[in-house]
């Protein structure tokens, strides 16, 4: 009977730890800045949220670790905004030197 109680207590503590971790992540806002969350926002909401993070980043003068985290989140915003901007566009083709010179067509 004592062995079953011990297993029950350990299982209960593990469950509490898991729920506590999920609750902490939710309350700390880590889930808020996930890629899925960013994809679900409209363009205006995305710009608004990015501006809030940018202002927090600017005000994190002495807290270097916070500034690094916020900069990482800003990069996530930039990637999502860039992905949306280039959605239907062809990738940029770098200039090439052709047989007849730069920018000259090869059909004579």
Task: Describe the 3D structure.
This protein has four helices and two strands. With 108 residues, it is mainly alpha-helical. The protein has a two-stranded antiparallel ribbon. Helix 3 runs antiparallel to helix 4.
Question: Which SSEs are present, and which pair or pack?
Answer:
Elements (H helix, E strand, L loop, with lengths): L1 H27 L6 H6 L2 H17 L4 H22 L11 E2 L2 E2 L6
Antiparallel strand pairs: 1-2
Helix pairs in contact: 3-4
Series of H and E elements: HHHHEE
Radius of gyration: 25 Å
The structural domain count equals 2
- Strand residue percentage: under 5%
Question: Roughly how many Å apart are the termini?
Answer: 93 Å
Given the helix and strand composition, which structural class is it? mainly alpha
Overall strand count:
2
Q: What kind of sheet is the major sheet? A: 2 strands, antiparallel
Report low-confidence residues grouped into runs of 5 or more.
none
Query: Mean of residue pLDDT?
Result: 80
User: Which of globular, elongated, flat, extended, rod-shaped describes the shape?
Assistant: elongated
Proportion of residues in helical segments = 55-70%
Biggest sheet, spatial arrangement of strands: 1-2
Tell me briefly what this model is.
The protein has 108 residues and is mostly helical. The protein has helices spanning 2-28, 35-40, 43-59, 64-85, and strands spanning 97-98, 101-102.
